Inverse folding.
């Protein structure tokens, strides 16, 4: 009988060491780590970030525990990962895989806490983070839209498993214990899309709670727990619960047929790396808006067009990007012209030539129309000239923008879908451009860049963590 999916993944996780990681994979995880640490510092200034820090400090203080980023206080492992996950997710600038999961907000807090507490080396941490990202992305894969269609939010559902894998690697779980941790994580996970559909804020704490649950799953796996061997693909297992069946039949897909293979999740491990397709979000908005902003920025920098003379802007996107969180449960405020919609970010970038990465997060339905400067009035006028069209044959993160001017001139640009899959060099360039406007000592920000770049030479991760703590 063939190995279970959990067994296949656990065997790979237990055996993987740093020396087996391709250079491009190491570079990619460093880019993700750098991104999440900088975003955590930004997130600490938000109301949700401050609340998470105070919650962990008040409810779970532990003098010899793990460090809460920015604040510097120590809490239980679970308390620290809860707070740090919130910091990395508060501004909506975490990274994305296939638009709807955000592995960095779950995997990296779990990894930092356990690496600190186990006195792990930089290479240990990098290896564990790669595993968390890779296995979370593989387990999620083509199933993501079907999970959303079941009324579950994919990011916390799959993030619990990513956090469990990363924690398990750093605390030295055996192969059998990794199997148990996956079974426990599959049981502990959850998070509905009702908030995303109707405008509730509960999703702001989905990732923090899923990270805590994943860490707990890994820790409990050491307690002689026998996990279900087929916890993922069993008849009453994870895929049946969160996608509707265990045969790979899909409700929705970004592109292609409505079916996939569960067995393919564990194929080509160590050869095909899904982590390479993770996209960092530099702007404080939903992931699908980021390539629209980037593409519009490029078009505006290439052409001296007058925004006031724009007659119409057409944005062609993947169809699932126009029906968030799912075609089964769409949020009409996100798909209609209004502040915080794709129409808004398209119009703002066209009017200004760019969109500020540090501009506070705007969610549809939670913000009033901007007032004041004339250029904001232009944004609101342009917004109503934007048309968003969804296509089932267009990849995610691959918009095409067409700008038609009053005089008949047309400007156009198009992405293929991989333009924002940044390496460490690009990530460094993008985040360092923010440093002068961040309320954080610039020398410490540059120190974070250097420490992450050289993390594979570090004997401990503590110096990196301390660079992310206030002086």
């Amino acid at each position: 009988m063939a190995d279970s999916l959990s067994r296949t993944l656990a065997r790979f996780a237990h055996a993987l060491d740093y020396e087996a990681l391709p250079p491009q994979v190491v570079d990619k995880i460093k880019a993700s780590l750098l991104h999440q640490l900088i975003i955590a510092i930004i997130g600490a200034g938000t109301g949700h970030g401050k609340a998470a820090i105070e919650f962990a400090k008040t409810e779970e203080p532990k003098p010899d525990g793990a460090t809460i980023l920015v604040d510097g206080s120590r809490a239980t492992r679970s308390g620290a990962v809860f707070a740090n996950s919130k910091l990395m997710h508060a501004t909506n600038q975490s990274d994305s895989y296939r638009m709807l999961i955000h592995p960095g907000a779950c995997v990296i807090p779990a990894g930092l806490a356990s690496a600190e507490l186990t006195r792990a080396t930089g290479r240990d941490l990098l290896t564990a983070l790669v595993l968390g990202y890779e296995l979370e992305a593989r387990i999620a894969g083509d199933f993501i839209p079907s999970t959303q269609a079941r009324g579950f939010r994919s990011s916390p559902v799959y993030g619990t498993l990513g956090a469990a894998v990363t924690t398990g690697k750093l605390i030295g779980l055996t192969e059998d214990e990794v199997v148990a941790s996956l079974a426990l994580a599959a049981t502990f996970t959850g998070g509905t899309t009702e908030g995303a559909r109707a405008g509730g804020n509960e999703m702001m704490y989905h990732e923090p709670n899923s990270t805590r649950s994943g860490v707990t799953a890994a820790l409990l796996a050491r307690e002689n727990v026998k996990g279900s061997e087929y916890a993922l693909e069993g008849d009453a297992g994870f895929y049946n619960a969160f996608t509707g069946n265990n045969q790979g039949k899909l409700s929705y897909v970004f592109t292609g047929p409505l079916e996939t293979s569960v067995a393919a999740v564990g194929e080509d491990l160590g050869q095909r790396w899904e982590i390479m397709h993770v996209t960092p979000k530099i702007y404080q908005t939903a992931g699908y808006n980021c390539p629209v902003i980037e593409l519009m920025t490029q078009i505006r920098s290439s052409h001296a067009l007058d925004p006031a003379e724009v007659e119409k802007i057409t944005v062609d996107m993947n169809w699932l990007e126009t029906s968030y969180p799912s075609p089964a449960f769409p949020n009409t405020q996100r798909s209609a012209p209004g502040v915080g919609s794709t129409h808004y970010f398209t119009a703002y970038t066209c009017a200004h030539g760019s969109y500020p990465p540090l501009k506070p997060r705007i969610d549809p339905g939670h913000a009033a129309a901007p007032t004041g400067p004339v250029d904001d009035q232009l944004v609101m006028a342009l917004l109503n000239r934007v048309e968003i069209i969804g296509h089932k044959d267009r990849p995610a993160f691959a918009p095409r923008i067409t700008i038609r001017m009053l005089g008949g001139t047309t400007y156009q640009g198009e992405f293929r879908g991989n333009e924002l899959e940044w390496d460490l060099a690009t990530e460094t360039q993008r985040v360092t451009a923010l440093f002068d406007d961040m309320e954080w000592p610039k020398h410490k920000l540059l120190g974070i860049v250097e420490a992450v770049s050289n993390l594979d030479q570090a004997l401990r991760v503590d110096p990196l963590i301390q660079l992310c703590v206030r002086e």
Q: What stands out?
A: The radius of gyration is 22 Å. The chain has two domains: 5-280+422-467, 289-414. Residues 249 and 259 are 5 Å apart (CA to CA).
